[in-house]
Design brief:
The protein is 40% helix and 8% strand. With 238 residues, it is an alpha/beta fold. A hairpin with a 5-residue loop joins strand 3 and strand 4. Helix 4 packs across helix 6.
Length: 238
């Protein structure tokens, strides 16, 4: 039998200590050792450590009750992903991204883990939760015959899940259209031009329209785009 190296003994000791202090789910246990091993999920890491712990104690692996670290929120990822999909099911999009606002409880637990159970192999709970939400959302899309991929830089749809207040904020990225037009008459500016005197509030100079000109190319073509996209506002850039 090959003896365990010092690093291996160290991470096993840390895992056994975590398992002994309270109920912890496989994902949260594995996350404390996320940088160890390749091709494994945190759930797989945690499950393996739970089995080794049970073997060392001569017991059967115990399924945890509500995890004191994530407070069961990781298990809610599929439910939250469905809520997110309902909010954007009428939109067309190819990319998305999830973000999470932690509750004071989660922030306190993260600090406690860093102080009481420091691990050089750990990754933040927030990253794990974002990953769980993204994977669950992709599964929802597949079940609906749709597909989209994660984009960390310019997502077309962005969700922010508030684990404290329970809401989901949705940000839809603007749609951009490129094209050309021909202006065959004079006196029509390209964009909406607010009155110089009242700043668009309406005065005698602008006949209380708030505009320097009766209309513009922007005002003539924008309604068609807003109707097609279900948009709330837009601008024409030359």
């Amino acid at each position: 039998m090959v003896p365990l190296q010092s690093k291996e003994m160290d991470f096993l000791d840390k895992a056994f200590e975590l398992l002994s202090v309270g109920p912890i789910c496989d994902i949260c246990l594995g996350r404390r050792f996320a940088k160890l091993g390749r091709g494994l999920t945190n759930a797989q890491r945690g499950r393996a450590l739970r089995i080794v712990y049970a073997m060392a104690k001569g017991e059967e692996p115990r399924e945890p009750e509500r995890c004191w670290i994530c407070n069961g929120d990781l298990e809610r990822a599929p439910e939250l992903a469905k809520q997110a999909f309902e909010a954007v099911k009428d939109y067309e999009f190819r990319t998305f991204l999830f973000g999470v606002h932690l509750s004071p409880y989660h922030e306190a637990v993260e600090e406690f883990l860093k102080e009481r159970f420091p691990s050089p192999w750990a990754e933040p709970f927030q990253r794990d939760m974002n990953r769980a939400l993204g994977q669950a959302f992709e599964e929802v899309l597949v079940s609906q015959g749709r597909s989209a991929t994660v984009d960390f830089h310019h997502p077309q749809v962005r969700f922010t899940v508030d684990l404290w207040k329970g809401g989901i904020d949705v940000y839809i990225a603007p749609a951009y259209f490129y094209g050309r037009y021909r202006k065959l008459v004079r006196g029509i500016p390209q964009t909406h031009w607010p009155c110089r005197h009242c700043g668009g509030k309406g005065c005698e100079r602008c006949n209380y329209t708030g505009k320097m000109y009766p209309t513009s190319v922007e005002e003539l073509i924008l309604p068609a785009f807003l109707e097609a996209c279900g948009g709330e506002g837009g601008h024409l850039h030359g």
